[in-house]
Amino acid sequence: MKAMVLEKPGQALTLKELPVPVPAAGQVLIRVLACGICRTDLHVMDGELTEPKLPLIPGHEIIGTVAAVGAGVDAISVNDLVGVPWLGYTCGKCRYCKKGKENLCENAKFTGYTIDGGYAEYTVAYEQYCFKLSDQYHNAASAPLLCAGLIGFRSYHMIDAGAKNIGMYGFGAAAHILIQIAKAQDKKVFAFTRDGDVKSQSFARDLGAFWVGGSSDTPPGKLDAAIIFASAGELIPKALQDVDRGGTVICGGIHMSEIPAFSYDLLWEERVVRSVANLTRQDGLDFFDLLKSITVNTQTELYPLSQANEAIARLRKGLVKGAAVLVMDAK
Predict the structure, then answer these.
(1) Assigned domain for 289 exists
(2) Do 173 and 144 contact (CB within 8 A), yes or no?
(3) Which listed residue, of 102, 150, 243, 291, carries a Cα 20 to 30 Å from 137's Cα?
(4) Residues 15, 113 share a domain
(5) Helices (H), the chain
(6) What is the DSSP secondary-structure string of 7-26?
(7) pLDDT in tens, 157-203
């Protein structure tokens, strides 16, 4: 099979011909249809996430069909359409798993980071973290739902249900999915982009943002809550300044640059800052259940597997409108 491989952080991916993997007990072999490129992949490639399996096949927004199953697999069958997210394995035995907080599992494994991912024609995944999908998701445009969608959804549900004015800082793959859910639920979205990023601001307006501005701009009213998808730590004090009393600031990424010092008055009046860590299987079930009643259309740029480096370069430069997705035709 063909695969794009990371040999060392900081280097470009290498196209290689590798053996098709064999599923172990509890695993399934997946013929990959498409795999989204997430900003977390960039953090892995750049060495900002410091414990990758090397060499590594990145990618954790996977859509594909099951080609074979390992011993003990009974809930998934050959030819099933499945999606594979970032969280790829949990032990079920540690103190967090026992408390129903599998997203914090002490022995977790992560797709495209500590286990090989979807920048390949085939991959293996643990049955417990494969979401069975209906045929409507049998397309490359569905791939971003497996991380941008799921993490955005988990972030969104950390906000008080009564929040109406919601800020989204960093308007990329996750925000462009989440704004569609928020608008369907009668929320007003305030979209913050990089200062001067006319393309992203136009994209946010097209999707129905109530207000659009640069990250340093002051919105026309106080926010009830804010979600930060960008990895810029300086956005935390900015978002605290923008939210109203009792407001919540959610950090929706796995990596963030250093947060600058800020005065206590920004946090006072019961404002809250919290992070999002991974996801749970229930998040996936709830998210795809929600999509039965809310139509979400992803905006994607499609690239053949061999052009992964070119797609990554465009994502780094902020040139991708929506999400970049690798597509392949495994034989």
Answers:
(1) no
(2) yes
(3) 102
(4) yes
(5) 39-45, 95-98, 148-156, 173-184, 198-206, 235-242, 281-290, 308-316
(6) SSTTSPPEEEE-PPP---TT
(7) 999 999 999 999 999 899 999 999 999 999 999 999 999 989 899 99
Give a yes or no: residue 127 inside a domain: yes
CATH of the domain at 256: 3.40.50.720
Kindly give the pairing relationship between strand 272-275 and strand 243-251: parallel
Tens digit of pLDDT for each residue in 260-319? 999 999 999 999 999 999 999 999 999 999 999 999 999 999 999 999 999 999 999 889
Instruction: Mark whether 89 and 161 lie in a shared domain.
Output: no
- 253 in a structural domain: yes
Q: Which amino acid is at 167?
A: G
Q: Residue 90: which residues within 8 A CB-CB, separation 6 or more?
A: 97, 102, 105, 107, 108, 128, 129
For residues 131 and 80, what is the distance between their CA atoms, to the nearest angstrom? 10
First-to-last alpha carbon distance for the chain, in angstroms, is 8
Q: Cβ-count burial of 6 within 10 angstroms (0-12 exposed, 13-18 middle, 19+ buried)?
A: buried
Report cis status (omega within 30 of 0) of the bond before 55.
Answer: yes
- State the DSSP H helix or E strand holding residue 250, giving kind and residue range, or none if neither: strand 243-251
DSSP secondary structure code for residue 51 in this structure: -
Query: 293 in a domain, yes or no?
Result: no
pLDDT, tens digit, 9 for 90 and up, residues 65-98: 999 999 999 999 999 999 999 999 999 999 999 9
Same domain for 20 and 137, yes or no, is yes
Residue 71, token pair as written in the block: 């011993």
> Cα–Cα distance between 273 and 262 in angstroms, integer?
13
Count how many domains the chain has. Answer: 2
> What is the spatial distance between Cα 235 and Cα 263, in angstroms, rounded to a whole number?
14
